[in-house]
Amino acid sequence: MTGVRRWLSKHRMWNLPTLIALVLFLIFVLFLFMVMNHNDENSSTIYVTQDAELRTGPNAAYPELYPVHKGDNFHKIGKSGKWIQVESHNKKEKGWITGWHTNLDIKKDVTASKDSLKGKTIVLDPGHGGSDQGASSRTQKKSLEKVYTLKTAKELKSLLNREGAHVKMTREDDSYVSLSDRNLKGDAYISIHNDSLDSTKANGGTVYWYRKGQEGLAETLNQSIQKKALLSNRGAKQENFQVLRQTNQPAVLLELGYISNPTDEDMITDKLHRHVVEEAVVDGLKIYFSN
Ligand SMILES: [Zn+2]
């Protein structure tokens, strides 16, 4: 300090304005430092706010890798639903942590409350029908998408009724209904489909959403299906489907497996597996409406 003072005195700068400028400069540096260390959802460093564990995937069903402790910090490298993929600064440790165990503003998953579906109106839209058979399998079974979307919707309807929900169906039998006629109103809209590709290798379920207000329902249903069903998980994705685009309500389009994949086809055509998926959808809806 005396050195600085001597230099300032020598150059006739040791006066009040200089001191004020010096103090302001120090405050500015401190402020810059704080801003650079500030973390929000866009920044790449996240802090662990509660002792937790890293898992191999974005879901409590994935195995634990190792514990992490309050105050640890990581690079954020990905996000899926309410889970954050992180990597240690030396890149040796990598895994998934729940967002609510970090400094990110992510609320804990709510557990489904018992009566959350009571009085809710759920629209079920079994894809295709009538002259529009949808996708078909290439195995001996020659399964048709329109048959299994309707079966799934009917089975799901009775499970939802049991929870006290009203169900509206866009079709009740094997008839053709145009996409614009499928726009029924309710508290949630679920369009049911099966995927198909030329390659028989593609497999797994996908939950599609399109409008911003539909993403929460999609993530919730995707997590719940992932927890219960044997179907491999392709995630919740945004796609411009007409049935999603033409409605303002929370709406999703479920692709419940590839009918073109023999393993998925076995699951789609198996009543027991469908039941597991349908229960997962009910669970997800209960969680969604518990919020
Ligand atoms: Zn379809």
UniProtKB/TrEMBL annotation:
The record's similarity note reads: Belongs to the N-acetylmuramoyl-L-alanine amidase 3 family.
Name it: Probable cell wall amidase lytH
What's a GO cellular component annotated to this UniProt protein? extracellular region
What does this protein's UniProt record list under function?
A: Probably involved in cell-wall metabolism.
* Gene3D superfamilies per UniProt: SH3 Domains, Zn-dependent exopeptidases
Q: Which PROSITE patterns match?
A: SH3B
Region Disordered: list its residue ranges. Answer: 121-143
What PANTHER family does the database record attribute to this sequence?
A: CELL WALL AMIDASE LYTH-RELATED (PTHR30404:SF7), N-ACETYLMURAMOYL-L-ALANINE AMIDASE (PTHR30404)
Compartments reported by the entry = Secreted
Q: Which UniProt keywords apply?
A: Cell wall biogenesis/degradation, Hydrolase, Membrane, Secreted, Signal, Transmembrane, Transmembrane helix
The chain positions of domain SH3b read: 41-105
Gene Ontology MF term list: N-acetylmuramoyl-L-alanine amidase activity
Q: What is its main location?
A: secreted
Region forming the signal peptide: none
Q: Name one GO biological process term.
A: peptidoglycan catabolic process
InterPro entries, per this entry? Answer: LytH (IPR017273), MurNAc-LAA_cat (IPR002508), N-acetylmuramoyl_amidase_3 (IPR050695), SH3-like_bac-type (IPR003646)
User: Could you tell me which SUPFAM superfamilies the record lists for this protein?
Assistant: Zn-dependent exopeptidases
EC number(s) per entry: 3.5.1.-
